[in-house]
Write a structure and sequence with these properties.
Number of strands: 7
Distance between the termini: 55 Å
Radius of gyration: 17 Å
Structural class: alpha+beta
Number of helices: 6
Helix content: 40-55%
Shape: elongated
Length: 170
Amino acid sequence: MSTEERRKNIQAVLRRSDGPVSASVLAGQFGVSRQIVVGDIALLRAEGCQIHSTPHGYILGEYASGVRRVVACRHDAAEMQQELYAIVDQGCTVQDVIVEHPVYGQLTGQLLLSCRYDVDSFIQKCRTSAAKPLSALTEGLHLHTLLASDESAIERAVSSLKELGVLVES
């Protein structure tokens, strides 16, 4: 299979998938290294393909329809799991985390956390890696884009964040 055929097949796999697909899974499927897949994804993005990275793998296209709201939060690393639970327990998805860096400007990390299992997997990955959360760059201040099927789920999540004491209100 040629490189171009493999890239088209990667797009097809992502299009058919109901959820994120990891580079390792794609590498196994096409008989190449994970690094080859990462390079293929980069080139597909450069060609304009909307492929997003999440902690669980790649997804194709837009995230989800429905209501979106950006909320500001501040907390330390020890409160991260409770903050994320407060959001997903109300029926929202945490699309991303955003911080403002003094040199690079806005930095965004894709999360796509929709349930406690997703949150627990993310927290475990944070604990087992040497990387610090993006919010460590801004003394705990960060934004999240919340996705939900309706406004009431967003309102419940905002209320939960207020109760937890991590919501930054303007």
